[in-house]
Amino acid sequence: MYERGSQVQMRPPLYTPEERIRRDNSVWTLIQGILAPIQFLVFLVSVCLVLRYINTGEGLQAATISVVIKTLTLYTIMITGCIWEKVVFDCYLFAPAFFWEDVFSMLVLALHTIYLWAVYTDALTPLEQMYLALAAYVAYAINAGQFIWKLRMARLDMARREAMSAPAGLAA
Q1: Considering the chain, what is the average pLDDT of its residues?
Q2: How many domains does the chain have?
Q3: Element (H or E) spanning 160, and its range?
């Protein structure tokens, strides 16, 4: 819900009833639900390793490997996410419900890919590579926040809609 002038209006639902059914029945929803926390865990470990290298100069190989693993998990969740979007919204990317999240995901992918290129070509010093990894991680954290916020707002909106449509004696 949001206010516009003197009226309170509901946001459009994130999913149509048909899209909700496809979402709930898709194995890709489960896969995304498994991969997201795995990616976040890899991210947390990698952030620690990258910061350790930046602060001490030690552990470059561990930090580099962790960023590569984080990038591979990102690619995996992006590919499976595209399949999920195709199943639910009938387009691989930029479905209206997740348009801006997908746009920002492209920046996240670009930064992670540039990191891989920098490691492969030695185009940047190891310290510069780690700072690039941190920039990619900041973008990832913002993007993850976008998705979490969007899904939280959708749940709240759905609860409000259900409460408004419930018979008067049942709405509490």
Answers
A1: 89
A2: 1
A3: helix 126-165
